[in-house]
Amino acid sequence: MTGTGRTGGRGRPRRRDFLAMAGLGGAAVLLSGCGVGSAAPRGALRAAFGQPVTDLDPYNAATAVDEASLIVKRLVFDTLVRREGEELAPGLATDWRREGDTRWVFTLRRGVRFHDGSEVTAGDVVACLKHTQQVASAQTPLWATVTGVQAPDDHTVVFTTDGPLGSLPVNLTLLFIVPARLVADPEQKRSPVGSGPFRVTDFTPSTSVELARFDDYWGGRAELPAVSMPYIAETSTAITALRNGDVDLLWPVPPDQLPEVTGVSGVTVETVPSWTYYFNWFNCSRKPFDNPDVRRALCQAVNVPQIVEALFGRGGKQMRAPIPETVAGFAAQQPWSYDPDGARRLLEQAGLGRGFSTSMMWFDATGPLSRELAQALISAWADIGVTVEPQSIEKAMWLERLNTLDWDMNLQTNTVTTGDAAFTIGRLYTSEANRLGYANKELDAVLARAAGAPEGAERDALYGDACGTIWSDAVGLFPVTLVTGYGRAKELTGFTPAPNNQPDLAVVGRR
Questions:
Q1: Confidence check: pLDDT of 47 > 90
Q2: What string of H, E and C letters represents the secondary structure of 22-56?
Q3: Quick one: which of 45, 140, 201, 275 has the fewest CB in 10 Å?
């Protein structure tokens, strides 16, 4: 992109100049605000995440892997296996073993109680797995090869698969356990029952979640008596709340606004390379995106390095694969060269020499600078004759349209929650998953082999091959991996920034 505006130190446009060139000027995006944790009990941890929580049912199809919901679910529910840093650790299961290629045996912890006082048993685990297999959701591919689950006694669960499934333990970090009788109870959306360190006391969708400490938690009482999670739609309001002490923890802080909380009395800022990244999917089942050359043209039309530098600076890094480089299974690809003339030639070869009209949907709270990124992409595509209708919509509607493939292009962030390529590459890009209208039988075969391979060089190589196929087929444009900024009150103790945006709030205390 060229222009006559003032530039920063290395000849690159400064952010405000870049936004002006992209048609955004200096105006802030106006979002509706909300109250800031006024109902929080004394001593509560007041934590504000940048996306609204719309549902708490662990098996709701629309929110099965929704980032905001997962933060709360990890406080309310338990899983058999959990992640501690880069390692898998016991949760409800004290140990597990693989017997042959198709059988896994898990031993459950004894004496664990749900919030309603009932005991957690292997029968609950069986019911939860069977129910989640019945609900078509973004998690469905994770469980497709699990052909059976039995409870030979109250504290043993046996999983059977139709072939090797080395990723089963990491997949189980997403199977939240509830009482068997409640797996299909609609009340789980609002007042769920789990066995986690906190229980839900109040929930208003897209507004706030109030949690109280569960004193009988098997892992020991949480440090603080309660967690209050207000959703503050306007980032400037959230930052003011942090600066004023109305919230204790805020994340992610957009990279361009980190200076506003850096050096503030009583506030500590921490950043961590995250597993969160932006992508723009093309609906490969809709014309003209069923043509790979059209998709490649749109990739070539975008000056990704300039956009990443101008918008995100140190808060982002240009992607070289469809997953972040810190995720297991990453393999670097050759970035798309910025070549608008080449993009026009590809469109002409596809019979679209005069360009075409399409649309892009997103919701503003998907991540930092989402509207600015959307406008930058739309501006780049306009230069090659592609007119894009911007569709910034409310999150619940966005989820519904996403899951029904009711869109042309979809811009969003995604977090590799488990830190493993199986969660993203293996879950989203199979023909059966049909998440973006893309089907490739050769890729399906590679992913099936990767799912059954044990951790190691062979498995990494298979996911590396998959990265290459997805990248070269241009099923989406993958511009930037985010660096997550956390702003927190200095008096908090025990807090550790999480690359998956889901920090463990149960261990957070206060001086």
A1: yes
A2: CCCCCCCCCCCCCCCCCCCCCCCEEEEECCCCCCC
A3: 201
